[in-house]
């Protein structure tokens, strides 16, 4: 008997076709059975290229396929909630790309749908199940760097293409929604808590209307997190975690490469020249393969999913309040 979970994919988004689907096809628990597009030809081409057995010319047809157990939803941000709801109502589990909604109110609506339909819904923060982040959390929980007091991050790339969905404010584009959500989820994950209040500062692109640079401060009961994210700066990403007796530096925290090892640096702070530096290397792995397999396994074995839907709602609530703070210029409480 085939224990693999049968997946259907909504749309032919670049991230799905180039990264997530090929990665999931390597999985021990996941099988991509069908792909849909509003354009039959596009669906057929993608299915052919990727060796997917079925192609559908509408999302509705895919949801009506009784063979499909779980849906991967990589549609543009404003379509995350409506199609996740439709999929859940069709009795399918859903792995939905981040950010799961346009705001926390929308995200909360998914809780009721999940409970009513009896399905699992998860936000696709692949970083949260990558071995490097599981190890960082374990190191911090073990007291390796003393008490964690500060987390700081940076995430940027350059893209001013007005046609790109990430540059369209009305459908959830901009730096905070696209990439700022990562330092937020990681800070909450590593502190194991929700921030009490947040402060945000944004600069908007005069033509596109999206936030092109956003910085934020998150105030946790036992520490602070700060980050800057940008859609119009040189490509870079880094996360650093500071404790009372050391620090951890995560070299490629978010887009961990699937074709080479990743590294974290643990420094005991004995000098400023790296004299107390230790490097931990993680073998080559694909975080999209791991993400898909963990979710598939939770479905097949009826166990808890790696990231609860409640976590996605909480992350969205932080994003909402950072946006609000950029408007009010005040600290906003959670």
Describe the structure.
The protein contains nine helices and 15 strands. The strands form two sheets. The chain has a nine-stranded mixed beta sheet with strand order 14-13-12-11-7-10-9-8-15. The chain has a six-stranded parallel beta sheet with strand order 3-2-1-4-5-6, sandwiched between helices. Helix 5 packs antiparallel against helix 9 and helix 7 packs across helix 9. The chain is α/β, with parallel strands linked by helices and 334 residues long. The longest helix has 20 residues. The chain starts with a strand and ends with a strand. The model has no long low-confidence stretch (mean pLDDT 97).
Average pLDDT level: 97
End-to-end C-alpha gap: 48 Å
- The run of helices and strands is EHEHEHEHEHEHEHEEEEEEEHHE
Strand arrangement in the largest pleated sheet: 14-13-12-11-7-10-9-8-15
Radius of gyration: 20 Å
Which structural class best describes the helix and strand composition?
alpha/beta
Q: Please, how many helices?
A: 9
Number of beta-strand segments: 15
Low-confidence stretches: none
Let me know the largest β-sheet: 9 strands, mixed
Q: Please state the overall shape, judged from the principal axes of the Cα atoms.
A: globular
How helical, in percent, are the residues?
A: 25-40%
**Proportion in β-strands:** 25-35%
